[in-house]
Design brief:
The chain is globular. The protein has two domains: 92 residues, no CATH class; 40 residues, no CATH class. The strands form two sheets. The protein has a six-stranded antiparallel beta sheet with strand order 1-2-3-4-5-6. The protein has a three-stranded antiparallel beta sheet with strand order 7-8-9, with no helix packed on it. It is built from one helix and nine strands. Strand 4 and strand 5 form a beta hairpin. By secondary structure, the protein is mainly beta.
Length: 133
């Protein structure tokens, strides 16, 4: 699970939003999406009815990496209130993360910092490597 901080309007620092996201991985593909979108998808799949309305957050996009095709697919909802999805696919680019010695404690986990210059922006991520062995 990820704590995602983003700016819907990259020209306005005041548009800062936060949500939780998930990364689902298997040997053939990975999916990145907001956690509330995953909950909504599960409720829809299992046709769960609730007395209260579930309102997903503002993140509507999904990112799918297909490791066999070496491609990334981007899915986004193009109209509010509709299930119309826009999708495009492009070759997977090798992203060169710069793993730094800097750390940040998140909860009780000591996470390491990594940076990346991509798409005319600098990305910062903190990660925790869990080894089950």
């Amino acid at each position: 699970m990820y704590h995602l901080t983003y700016y819907p309007d990259s020209n306005s620092r005041g548009s800062k939003q936060e949500t939780l996201a998930e990364l689902l991985i298997n040997k053939n593909e990975s999916w990145f999406r907001s956690l509330s979108t995953g909950v909504y998808d599960s409720l829809t799949y299992y046709k769960t009815s609730t007395k209260t309305k579930f309102i997903p957050d503002a993140i509507k996009y999904h990112i799918r990496k297909n490791f066999e095709k070496d491609a990334i697919s981007y899915y986004d909802q193009i109209r509010m209130g509709y299930l119309d999805l826009y999708c495009y696919e492009e070759p997977m680019k090798v992203l060169r993360w710069n793993v730094l010695d800097d750390t940040l404690t998140i909860g009780n986990l000591v996470c390491q910092k990594a940076t990346l210059n991509f798409g005319q922006r600098q990305w910062i991520a903190y990660f925790f490597f869990w080894d089950s062995h």
